[in-house]
Amino acid sequence: MPNFCAAPNCTRKSTQSDLAFFRFPRDPERCRIWVENCRRADLEAKTSDQLNKHYRLCAKHFDPAMVCKTSPYRTVLKDTAIPTIFDLTSHLKNPHTRHRKRIKELTEEDIRKIKERRLASSIDQIASKKDAAEDSTTTNEDEPQLSTEEKAFREYLRSLFEAVVMLGKQSIPLMPLKASETELKPNNFQALLDYRMNAGDEALKKRFEATAVNSEYLSVTQQSQLLDICENTVREEMLMEVRESRFFSLVTGDLVEFANEKHLPLFLRFVNQQNVLREEFLDFVPFDGDEPALVERLEAQLTDRWGLSMEDCRGQAHKATGISTTKMKAVAILLMEKYPLALHMPCSHMALNIHLANSLPFPNVQVVMETLRRIGAFFQAQSTQDELEKAISTHYQKNEEKGAALKQACIPGWTEQHNVFDVLLDMLPPLLLCMDNIRDNEEGKFAASVVADGYSIAETLADFEIVVTIVILKNVLTFTRAFGRNLQGETLDVFFAANSLTAVLHSLNEVNDNIDVYHEFWYEEAVSVATMIEIPVKVPRLFLRKQRAADVGEIQAEPYFKEYVTMPVIHGIMQEVEDMFSETNLKALKCLSLVPAVMGQMKFNTTEENYADVYRNDLPNPDTLPAELHCWRIKWKHRGKEVRLPTTIHETLQLPDVKFFPNVNSFLKVLSTLPVLKLEDSKSDTASGRLQAYLDSMPPHQWNKSLAMLNVNTHVKHDLDVMVDKYCRLYPEDDTEVDAESEEVAEEEAGMK
């Protein structure tokens, strides 16, 4: 039905014009002004609700500055818009024409009332501005006036915080590089303060000008206080965004050791107010105690200290290695028992096959995984990488194509790829040759520590049990390789991966049902590899010793490796896949069909309603979800030919009209936090990558939790004034000086003893 303009002498209607038409406002006062300006006497008796429902004004009656075009298809008015442009005289040229929209003739009384109302409105505006100015003045007067000493102290603190933040940003440790240098050099923090004073920092000069040259400017306690304030301020900036977003996922990294105590890096993944997926590093959590104690510690950190609710946690992923894997699996199970929607999933930063192998608690598998990590670190140096490529060329000189392919495969980071076990098996002969050459070190270009590391890795690899384990892992994980690669792909790949899990489990079950046949082939392959690199085929020495002690008959190699390697690996992989991709997890991933590109691939024949019950309580209007999903599908199915279907959740959330689908909008935000989905900027720096870069940049004894926090989160706003305010509130100047003096006295007494 067309809209007609209610203005006098205006004949425009929506079917004949591209102009926007606007409803009369519901607000009675604004609606009265609109009617008054229209000069339509017949509208004065109608209520604002009636006018809003049945009457419109076209855009021609508003100042252009009052009209905003938010998109090619949407035009809105500013909240304060008033119609002021009307034709009130053209009907006088044809007095015999019958006019439905009669113009009200204003009497002198009407004109006087209008002027009074406009004058009163102007006076009110002036009065409100004056009140606001007075309130501002009063507020300024109420603020405590700082003394000269207090201002100087705050400037001094600001300089200190600037120095601490700079140390964190530039990965500069507090202490010198070598422990022996502490007697010769001041710590880096003190050296930086000296530099600032020499460069003209007056606040620091006034504070330390009378200090002895060989004394510390700040005690260890004061330095610790500064670091804590910096760390907490940066963390609070990120937590504010998490609280605004509400839903988040919990991600933990591999263990980090500070002062001989193991800590768990803690990350949170969330969608911010700009609908951008973020994953931020928040803290290190002590790893001591059993699994229930660790769960309690995590809950206390998130809820009591950070003000979050674990009821809003929608996913968890734990990038654990070595002996910590079993403990973190137990932690994940305990968290899911208390919070069923905190779905345990693989982490998008780690290849699925690496995760599956890490999850196996068998010593031989853990030795292989630790050796892979050592190999990755060993070949980071260009000299060792060059030696490896030389060994590949030597070994594959009769098959240059295979050698070139292997050189291409052993790029930095190859030990973390989906096909790592395939590459490792092909590289085993040249790898051992490379280690032998490094051990010989004929040209003397390798340090003794490098030679020792190479020898240790070679000794580990030259063991038949390790060779068998690598072969078994390669063959079993072949069935999950494509599935895992799709999980780290685009949204469409992840959706199809979720729907292909049945086929993956079917293949693993088929192997399990015919384990004798498969093991025979795999064992022959291991023997062939061992023979080629001259490794004796034998049962592990440790098992033989236990066997003799138990006075059990001799066991052959093939049945031993079937019972103690092949069967445990296949059963462990099957169990882990089933745990990681439970029915609830798959339901969540199948909801990715909400992304328009996935809907298009499925010919818009999707059934999100069947899986939506997982997140029903997270939706603003769950009862209208079926109707909304129908409209969502229709919108994209009947789009224009020039309209491209968004391919990711991020693209979809950036659409301006997604807000008109509140359930879909909320659904996509929750799905986006699932830790199995890759970050949009995964090719660039991530929080976990920045943390690893910090740890790699200096020796372990120089790691500092607070400086690591500052270094990883350099993109977060560092508000020095907030830091100064917090410090003044927590550590008043008098108390700080008393603490420093008592610490100095304690140090002197310790020296006398």
In a nutshell, what does this entry contain?
By secondary structure, the protein is an alpha+beta fold.
Structural account:
The strands form 3 sheets. Strands 5, 6, 7, 8, 9 and 10 form a 6-stranded mixed beta sheet that branches. A two-stranded antiparallel sheet has the order 1-2. The longest helix has 35 residues, at 108-142. The chain has helices at 28-38, 48-54, 108-142, 148-169, 188-198, 202-208, 220-245, 291-305, 324-338, 352-358, 363-378, 382-395, 400-409, 420-440, 448-461, 464-476, 478-487, 491-513, 515-532, 541-549, 557-580, 583-590, 596-601, 625-637, 649-653, 662-672, 687-696, 705-712, 720-730, 733-752; strands spanning 21-23, 56-58, 67-71, 74-77, 248-252, 256-258, 261-271, 277-286, 313-318, 343-344. Helix content is 56%, strand content 7%. It is globular and about 115 Å long. Among the domains are: 21-89, no CATH class; 149-226 and 720-736, no CATH class; 357-581, no CATH class; 584-673, no CATH class. A hairpin with a 5-residue loop joins β7 and β8. The chain has 30 helices and 10 strands. It has 753 residues and is α+β, with helices and mostly antiparallel strands.
